[in-house]
Design a protein that fits this description.
42% helix; extended; mainly alpha; 2 helices
Amino acid sequence: MGRQRTKEPSLRRTNKQTILLNNRELQALNLYCERYRISKSEFMREAIMRTILERFDHDLPSLFEESPTLFSRTMRK
C-alpha cells in the first residue's frame, strides 16, 4: 500500500485546466512521457511554470520601477 502524503492546504492542487491538442501534438506528448517515464500532468505543470518564471525573469523591472510580486500584484487586462 502506498504511503499517504500530507500536503499543506495551500500547496494542494485543486484547480483544473483543460487544453486542446491536435493529433500530432498529443502523439508527441504521449511519446515523450512514455520515453522519459513522466506523467503528463507533471510534465505540463513543469513546462508551464518554467515558461512563466523565465518570462518573469526576462521582464524584471528597471532600477526605478517597483519590485513585482507574483501573488499580490493586480492582474492587467
